[in-house]
Amino acid sequence: MADIHHRFMRQALVLARKGVGKTSPNPAVGCVIVRDGQVVGKGWHRRAGTPHAEVHALQDAGELARGGDVYVTLEPCSHFGKTPPCADALVRAGVARVFVGMVDPNPKVSGRGIEKVKAAGIEVAVGILEEQCRAVNNPFIKHITTGLPYVTLKSAMTLDGKTATATGDSRWVTGDASRRLVHRMRAVSDAIMVGIGTVLADDPLLTCRIRKGCDPVRVIVDSKLSIPLLAQVFTVASSARTVIATITADPAKVRAIEALGAEVLICRAIGERVDLRDLMARLGESGIQSVLLEGGAGLAGEMLAAGLIDRCLFFYAPKLVGGDGVGLFAANGVERMGDAVKIGNVAVRRCGDDIIVEGEPIYRCLPD
């Protein structure tokens, strides 16, 4: 029976992934309804403020939902938000059983939706492919439980670990397939973050250049507020916000940046640098659940040292730079190999001619 339940939950997961990056601040959820061993209804949450996955699946199934089995990747909601409770909709539809991937970490829901369905005499099983269901909503889970966004570090490098040559040239390290994948990552991220060094060196647009892709919020960490007023992040045709995180408050420069339509976010300082934990908290307070960290080496090193990177995607191109090329992290590293940050849940895959190594940093001792 476990194989059958896993098979239908996998179908619900496929549906849930369709909503990733489109439902914030809500989680991405998928649902299938099964009757006599056949899927009769499918649904996923498409964007915030619209019907949830269970409602779409019930509408798809119609009368066939009565007496059917429901497979949903996240606990049905039990409270009135912008839409009515999904738990109530399942009860009204007369479903026989509900199989839940994971309990909702949102305190407004956590366990209440399950109890509401059980109270109506409907059998409920929880924890079907829980790990996979959690992975779909890692940003939502971290944000709802800590207030901080989920940070993914993306870096392109050669096989000898260089992100650029000694002269700073980095176009292009990886191939077309990898660059297209990165733009898809931008499309499902709430924000993209780089340091001022990247802006000064490359003058990037920081946009998503795929058809119908949404631009993420552009966040530039610029402790000394040295960003040029002619930088492309100020002139690019995009509805997404541009946020400059700094510790200085030069009134004239702030007014000039705001006149260009961007925001200046004054953060706490650690020495002469932006306190990155304060920045993450401020971004979380503004509703940003996911951050794609794209560089540069200084910012990446500081984020790693602060224990603020949740996931890494390293794109390795089949190239060798040699010499004094630029490495991934510029900050001081550990002195003993035993103190190195290990990477867990490692996965390796191909992307065109490139190799992607993906994993999650395991911090031995998180900063205070």
Explain the overall architecture:
It is a single chain. Helix content is 29%, strand content 24%. It is built from 12 helices and 16 strands. The strands form 3 sheets. Strands 10-9-8-7-13-6-14-16-15 form a 9-stranded mixed β-sheet, sandwiched between helices. Strands 2-1-3-4-5 form a 5-stranded mixed β-sheet, with helices on both faces. Helix 4 links the parallel strand 4 and strand 5. The longest helix has 16 residues.
List the helices and strands and how they pair.
Elements: H1 2-17, E1 30-35, E2 38-44, H2 53-61, E3 69-72, H3 86-93, E4 97-100, H4 112-119, E5 123-126, H5 130-136, H6 138-146, E6 150-158, H7 176-187, E7 191-195, H8 196-202, E8 217-221, H9 232-235, E9 242-246, H10 251-259, E10 263-266, E11 269-270, E12 273-274, H11 276-285, E13 290-295, H12 297-305, E14 311-317, E15 342-351, E16 354-362
Parallel strand pairs: 3-4, 4-5, 6-13, 6-14, 7-8, 7-13, 8-9, 9-10
Antiparallel strand pairs: 1-2, 1-3, 11-12, 14-16, 15-16
Helix pairs in contact: 3-4
